[in-house]
Amino acid sequence: MNEGCTFYFVRHGETYFNHYRRIQGWSNTPLRSEGAEDVRRSGRGLADVKFDAVYTSDLSRTVQTANIILEENKHAEDLTIKMMPEFREVFFGSFEGADVDDAWQTIIKEMDYPSIPEMFALSSIPERMNATKKADPFNDAEDFMTFWSRVEQGMIKLIDKHRDTGHKVLVVAHGNTIRYLLNNLVADLVDPEPLLNASVSVANYHDGAYHLERYNEVRHFKDIEKID
């Protein structure tokens, strides 16, 4: 077996739109102080990991998150963040900034489900994304193939650069981006749960396949050690 490479996917910290339960795709709000502290705790738990490269989306909440993680890392002196628009969150079109529950109420009408829980239980991720585009009065929301095409291109770039190097690669992105990406790349990961803010998911790529090591992990969070 070759050396492969390992990807550490970290979701950004909690933002104001997350806190207010507003749809946040390409729209941008900064991390709350509580969100930044969770990222710092996550970074402390990853402090001993020697990353060889760091990538983020081009939205500021992921860049802010990556900078905090690197501040806590013991081996980050020579690392430079590379922003990649391929790793943006799903674009929700005219639903951007809307109340989460209000937006889903509109979308379930398009999908002809009686309730939001039933929609999530009985429909697939691509079906929900395609219905979101149809429910958007401006038709600007991304359907699944539009989203997948750009994110897949981002991963192809990373694989082309890091395959068979043994590198550990930090990718700070978004909840849906990471979740949908791993759902499609990891064969035995089916309908994964939504990701927590500042969580880490680890996947190793070798011999042409992705192998999940951790998903939605927050047990590594580490508080500052108190000195008596």
Automatic annotation (TrEMBL):
Gene Ontology CC annotation, any one: cytosol
InterPro entries: His_Pase_superF_clade-1, His_PPase_superfam, Phosphoglycerate_Mutase
Keywords: Hydrolase
Lineage top rank: taxon: Bacteria
Ligand binding (substrate): R11, H12, G13, E14, T15, Y16, F17, N18, R61, G175, N176
Residues forming the catalytic site: H12 (tele-phosphohistidine intermediate), E89 (proton donor/acceptor)
Keyword field contains Transport: no
Gene Ontology MF: a single term: fructose-2,6-bisphosphate 2-phosphatase activity
Pfam families linked to this entry: His_Phos_1
Alphabetical GO biological process terms: negative regulation of glycolytic process; regulation of pentose-phosphate shunt
Residues annotated as site: Transition state stabilizer: H174
Listed Gene3D superfamilies: Phosphoglycerate mutase-like (3.40.50.1240)
Name this polypeptide is given: Probable phosphoglycerate mutase
Species the sequence originates in: Pisciglobus halotolerans
Lineage: Bacteria, Bacillati, Bacillota, Bacilli, Lactobacillales
